[in-house]
Amino acid sequence: ASVGKGNYRHFMEKELHEHPIVLGDTLRQYIDPASRAAALPALPFDPATVPRLTMSACGSAYLAAQVGRYWIEQIARIPVDSDIASELRYREPVLPEGGAALFVSQSGETADTLAALRLLRSLGQKVLSIVNVDESSMARESDGAVLTVAGPEIGVASTKAFTAQLAVLACLALGFGRARGVLDGAEEARLTAALLEVPGHAAALLEDSTEVLELAREVVQARDVLFLGRGSLYPIALEGALKLKELSYIHAEGYAAGEMKHGPIALIDASVPVIALCPSGPLFEKTASNLQEAAARGGRIMAFTDAEGAPALRRFAERVVVLPTVDPFVAPILHAIPVQLLAYHVAILKGTDVDQPRNLAKAVTVE
Ligand code: G6P
Q1: Which of 74, 162, 267, 302 would be a feasible disulfide site paired with 158, CB 3.0-4.6 Å?
Q2: pLDDT tens digit string along 313-363?
Q3: Burial of 311 from C-beta contacts in 10 A (0-12 / 13-18 / 19+)
Q4: Where is the active site (predicted)?
Q5: Which ligand 1 atom sits nearest the alpha carbon of residue 156?
Q6: Model's pTM, two decimal places?
Q7: Counting atoms of ligand 1 from 1, which one is nearest the CA of 107?
């Protein structure tokens, strides 16, 4: 069936506004509301004993996998390796007996990801795919598939499929943690409750994006933009930079906040906006001090945070956008949305083609 834009100007705008529904649908699929526990489908490996997971994907799906890696290691204590799919084979990975591989893809057809999947499967790893298209090559060629419930995504730059991938990865991390005996029921219930609140927060964020639009007016004038984050927000900083490049053709770099002092700080002056993803939580103090270093060198800090983090950042940041306060576990899902919105608004201000950026394809079927 063909998909329309409804009352929206672009598919991307429509798909951004589908976040609350898609996140709700995906979370309902993998969380049992009665027991407040992750409810995973049958898996092709036993998470209780699997010695290691190898994760791989391309583009935004790779960045979702990176967040998943933080979650799976922190919550389930399973060792995880991850590589960009087009590089995985060249590393000649050393794979453990009985190991498993996890591939993430919206289309399920990306050639590099499919090639990596086939390689790892041929090397004896059990393969699980997270895909949005259940009839796709990856779904068919895997030992098991977990579906994101994002519906068709037409805009070339991924939006709702990306956050749906995060939602599935979060549920997998919880289910793996329980299976491994390192996550108790009370903690799992607390974390699933935090996840189930995300769709409502997403709706609130999308209802009023005035502040993100104001931020976009600053960013559209820049030649270079730096995105910073720490921990599970680091891959979201990379995603922010990727989205801005893809949609607006403005040069952007994502960096781990703590690594800035080893290079990018040399670029900082008043012409480079520094977009910081800095929610309250255990990593707040260190990230804030990295930002303060940038501000001291004339950097213009524009931060996404929450009510708890805002006062400290306001002391040196030029702009502070306050997002709902959530458990640090779910902060990357929530921060992904304004970062996508920012790229969207900058692209609209520049007049670029948001649904079909130059030189890019929705699914890349060549290696
Ligand atoms: C292309 C798209 C990206 C996407 C990537 C991976 O580059 O433009 O938005 O993240 O492919 O696609 P997949 O379908 O495997 O998630």
Answers
A1: 162
A2: 999 999 999 999 999 999 999 999 999 999 999 999 999 988 888 888 888
A3: exposed
A4: 362
A5: 8
A6: 0.97
A7: 14
